[in-house]
């Protein structure tokens, strides 16, 4: 973007975002996305309950969905599909997302904020990472300029927040959420905030406070979509109501455009306004839609607004939304709340491999023995009997690293870790002193 756009108002800025190549995404190129003045899609008439498809989702013997559901072929692309593609490119311009599915999910979540009165559930967007400087705050910058009516909750009290929520709710944005919930002592002090965020996930869950000179009980609305960014997992009750995006640091060679609000905000606001112009007339349609979902229970409640927006857009978006839903909810299944030490374990494992002469693999028992033998490290006291194989797996799971059955040069076959599985995490989170520190802002 050129600095000359700085003086333009959001209403006068008419920018389109070049498509950004997304790994695994066909058709990305560097031409501009054509848009019209109003961006309104052509939507076929619907009945009182719009299901999006009459086909039944494939299920197992127990009745559980087996995978993405929805139209088998891409629906005709609409102006809305072009707007979502343009929004996805705008996000990818400033932030390296952890996966194609995460980028699609963030795009659909932003669009869904413009139809909040239509939703039964207000999905949270949990933007978390194992360490600092993974791009979490930068993603919130882009969200702030593209969501409906952003409300930054830095240092805001729960009372101030629920008094700001109306029938046309704002979009709550909470940065450094780990400072609210990062330790039991701090979390206890912010229990009211967690209660507000939990209650606001579902419609008709007001909070009651005594207010006014007559001290009458008064009900306040809590329903509003919210994005929360922080280091480490948020409380389970929030993560269970969220689309979870697990950010990571940029690796060497990964580049993003710097974000300068003076000239980047106006075109993002213009894009936001065109998305709102497209979606606002579709509010009643969206409220009647009940799309087939590849998941059920609370996961379906959380993802339904994103899938509805995708179905309204057409094109490839119905398929992309359900693929992201299936992949990301499956990844979160069984995730536990974990403590820190994740960067420390990477650094110490690299030192152990170096001490053994950097072999291609090490048996798990050798790796654990060396870790526990370091008197200055916490591993000898990690758990009742020191760091265990299970404890090691838990610390490494966010990095996608696990042990495997390996055959070693002495002819034995044992559980162990392959060195090159750590290479990407070492580069991102604990680069050597002589390596350039390519990190996200």
From TrEMBL:
Residues 1-79 are annotated as: Disordered. InterPro entries: DUF3631. It comes from Actinacidiphila oryziradicis. This is DUF3631 domain-containing protein. Residues 246-429 form the DUF3631 domain. Pfam families: DUF3631 (PF12307). Residues 1-15, 50-67 have a biased composition (Polar residues). It comes from the Bacteria.
């Amino acid at each position: 973007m050129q600095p000359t756009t700085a003086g333009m108002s959001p209403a006068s800025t008419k920018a389109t975002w070049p498509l950004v190549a997304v790994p695994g995404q066909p058709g990305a190129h560097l031409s501009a996305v054509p848009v019209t003045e109003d961006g309104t899609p052509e939507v076929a008439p619907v009945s009182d309950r719009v299901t999006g498809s009459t086909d039944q989702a494939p299920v197992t013997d127990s009745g559980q969905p087996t995978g993405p559901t929805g139209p088998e072929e891409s629906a005709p692309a609409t102006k809305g599909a072009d707007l979502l593609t343009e929004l996805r490119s705008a996000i990818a311009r400033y932030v390296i997302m952890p996966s194609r599915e995460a980028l699609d999910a963030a795009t659909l979540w932003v669009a869904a904020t413009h139809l909040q009165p239509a939703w039964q559930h207000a999905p949270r967007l949990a933007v978390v990472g194992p360490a600092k400087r993974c791009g979490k705050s930068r993603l919130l910058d882009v969200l702030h300029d593209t969501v409906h009516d952003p409300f930054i909750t830095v240092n805001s009290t729960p009372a101030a927040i629920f008094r700001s929520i109306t029938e046309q709710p704002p979009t709550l944005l909470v940065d450094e959420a780990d400072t609210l919930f990062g330790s039991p002592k701090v979390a206890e002090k912010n229990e009211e905030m967690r209660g507000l965020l939990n209650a606001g996930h579902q419609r008709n869950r007001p909070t009651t406070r005594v207010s006014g000179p007559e001290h009458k009980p008064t009900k306040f609305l809590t329903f509003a979509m919210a994005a929360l960014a922080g280091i480490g997992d948020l409380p389970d009750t929030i993560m269970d109501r969220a689309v979870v995006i697990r950010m990571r640091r940029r690796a060497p060679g990964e580049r993003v455009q710097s974000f300068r609000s003076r000239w980047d905000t106006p075109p993002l606001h213009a894009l936001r306004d065109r998305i709102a112009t497209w979606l606002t007339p579709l509010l009643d349609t969206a409220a009647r839609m009940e799309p087939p979902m590849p998941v059920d229970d609370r996961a379906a409640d959380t993802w339904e607004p994103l899938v509805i927006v995708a179905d309204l857009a057409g094109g490839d978006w119905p398929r992309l939304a359900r693929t992201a839903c299936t992949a990301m909810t499956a990844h979160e299944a069984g995730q536990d709340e974990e403590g820190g030490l994740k960067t420390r374990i990477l650094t110490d494992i690299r030192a152990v491999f170096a001490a053994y002469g950097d072999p291609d693999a090490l048996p798990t028992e050798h790796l654990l023995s060396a870790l526990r033998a370091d008197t200055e490290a916490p591993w000898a006291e990690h758990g009742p009997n020191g760091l265990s194989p299970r404890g090691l797996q838990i610390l490494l799971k966010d990095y996608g690293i696990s042990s495997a059955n390996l055959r070693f040069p002495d002819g034995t076959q044992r559980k162990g870790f392959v060195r090159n599985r750590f290479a990407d995490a070492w580069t991102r989170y604990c680069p050597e002193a002589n390596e350039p520190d390519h990190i996200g802002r």
